Amino acid sequence: MLWLMVHIPKTAGTSFRKSMREIFGESLILDYGDKPLKFNRWKRNWRTWLQGRKSNELAINDNACIFGHYMPLKYSQLFRTRECMLVTWMRDPIERMVSNYYFIFEHHRLRNFVPGQSHIVDEKWTLEQFMFSPSYRNYSSQFLWGVPLKRFDFVGLVEHYEEDLTYFGEKYFGRSLSAHQEKQNSKRSGCPFLDDPRLRESAERFHARDMRLYRYALELRAKRIGEASYSKESQGSRSAA
């Protein structure tokens, strides 16, 4: 079984990666080099499609896990020709955008990056510019281009991280997983896009595709919980009988 774990930025991926390191050890293969959204849409999608066509030629052992900021289509021939499990986590799109914005500036400050490495930092973008930028519109949908969410075997929700992590560990590995807590950015408190209903609504309209994707992820989770509850009830009934 080969595992493909897609880390959409700012969806608790750092925490999840630490848990997966405990499971896979040296078989955890990190793929963070693509930075797909730094390319324009045509170049990004074409490049990823070409990578996907050749992915079944890669020398990757079973029982390994490819984890990182890559578009899942990059490994399309792998999961079409081999037994693979696709995993990702979703987050409220507006919360994710706000977190991503502050992370960009904090990351560059801590790393002492020089000018020219981020136009967002160099041009001192406001949160509003970032939120309504055509390049970053429907960010998660762009990341998952070519692979529908229903194709994934597990979709976790950041808002229910510990509960979903427990379910994931017990279902697929027969054990509980350590919930490594990722550092939260306190600058998000008092954010107008999170506190002002009108601004929030305008941001949701702008990122309508991501909002639909997120609502579908919520539906998948509700269905999963319902099935798990039914399974437990059935087991309890059989034991009582």
CATH class placement = Alpha Beta
Low-confidence stretches: none
CATH architecture type: 3-Layer(aba) Sandwich
Instruction: Determine Rg (CA atoms, Å).
Output: 19 Å
Report the portion of residues in β strands: 5-15%
Provide an overview of this structure:
The structure is a single chain. The chain is an alpha/beta fold and 241 residues long. It has a single domain (2-240), classed as Rossmann fold. Helix content is 52%, strand content 10%. The protein has eleven helices and five strands. Strands 2-3-1-4-5 form a five-stranded parallel sheet. Helix 2 links the parallel strand 2 and strand 3 (65-68). It is globular and about 45 Å long. The two termini are 37 Å apart.
Keywords:
Rossmann fold; about 240 residues; alpha/beta
Q: Layout of helices and strands, plus pairs?
A:
Elements (H helix, E strand, L loop, with lengths): L1 E5 L6 H12 L3 E3 L10 H14 L10 E4 L7 H6 L2 E7 L2 H19 L7 H4 L4 H5 L7 H5 L10 E4 L3 H13 L18 H4 L1 H10 L1 H33 L1
Parallel strand pairs: 1-3, 1-4, 2-3, 4-5
